[in-house]
Amino acid sequence: MNFLPLWRYQNQLIDGAIVTLELTVIAALAGLLIGVAGAVALNGRITPLRWLVRGYIELFRNTPSLIQIFIVFFVLPNFGLKLPAFEAAAVALSLYFGAYSVEIIRAGLDSVPKNQIEAGQCLGLSGWQVFRHILLPPALRNAYPAVTSQFVLLLLGTSLASQVAADELFHVAGFIESRTYRSFEVYAVICVVYFAMAMSFKALFAIIGLAAFRWPRRR
Amino acid sequence: MALVEIRDVHKTFGKVEVLKGVSLDVEEGEIVTIIGRSGSGKSTLLRCINALETVDSGEIRVEGERVHARMPDLKAFRQRVGIVFQAFNLFPHLKVERNITLAPLLTGRIDKARARALAEDVLTRVGLADKIDAWPEQLSGGQQQRVAIARCLAMAPHLMLFDEVTSALDPELVGEVLKVMEAMAKQGMTMILVTHEMGFARNVADRIVFMHQGRVWEQGPPAKLFANPETPELASFIASAK
């Protein structure tokens, strides 16, 4: 076992980790937006829209996300949408994370008692105001643990983007391996990096959760 | 013109006709208590007055304006008609102050600078000025219900509806809520209450309305109604409520 040959590749490893973080954060934010919008649509009254969202969820939750990335990267160019590797992976992972987020956030919204909506309406608030100020905060709190664990799965799942040669951590590791033939060492190193990133996010989310959700839980 | 005019209102849920032609007037400043057994339609009637339910036929007018779920100024209407629920329905994620000021701020009734003063004012009226920075969960049921009343008062409603507001409370907490309501009654607020508190109905209400099987069965001043019920249904209800 010899880690020394990896030393000169530290900048590549750092860059790869940064790309992994970028990919994760972009897909998570876009996915969350999809999640909120999709959850609203699923609870809405427009039936064709509900079917559309339902179909989207089932499609993306029941197919390998590697193939989803392939389709965005290799197939969409045939329809005139040509995306570079990073962007293609970001789109595919956003849709993947979004599909899970819809269900998680919808469960969060459903967990808020209906009488809360009524109370808001009776104070003369509009539908949007009720949603934004009364429904969403408790819903997000209830969805938060599931969203954060899904986020960590997303972080680890970005390694699939290596298969379309996006310059994220796993792809960088493959490159270093091909140069040094130190397979075990390089994958051990990025494993530690993934682990450290995942644990850091967990700690960060715990702090954010404490700051954002300060009200006492229902007894 | 009465503040609330209810004319031959019918309401059906599925196959169950809950309201079978209810007519009722409530004058400005009047305290009307609706009593009756479970399922007699009293809560449904109350919810129709606030357009939480839409009547199937007949009509309800408040301040001359016809009430229904699609009325163009429903939001403004609801600001004039406050309702307090059995389950308090405070917003758990907002402190007491914000529970009270959220709607006045969002609907543009007041600006930010005046928000805290408004919360202090209405909380003083329900005797909870010291709880302005508490979370709802930190309050007892009685206190939560008083905050819910204060939250309504902050909208300066012309009419207040109370839907069994003491039914979810421990017996020792009922009194503090009734006291607040009694004070409001004395200040001239028009109030319609659905309640099982016969003592309150007897002592505070101007008029008792007894509902039975989806109809106004009998109504009149409390002294007369409790002493000399005209119908056997009311007589048996009063006997069972004692």
UniProtKB/TrEMBL annotation, chain A:
MF term (GO), any: transmembrane transporter activity
GO terms under cellular component: ATP-binding cassette (ABC) transporter complex
GO biological process: amino acid transport
Keywords: Amino-acid transport, Cell membrane, Membrane, Transmembrane, Transmembrane helix, Transport
Transmembrane segments: 20-42, 63-80, 186-213
Pfam families according to UniProt: BPD_transp_1 (PF00528)
Keyword check for Membrane: yes
Record SUPFAM superfamilies: MetI-like
Chain's role: Part of the ABC transporter complex GltIJKL involved in glutamate and aspartate uptake. Probably responsible for the translocation of the substrate across the membrane.
Family named by the database record: Belongs to the binding-protein-dependent transport system permease family. HisMQ subfamily.
Protein name according to UniProt: Glutamate/aspartate import permease protein GltK
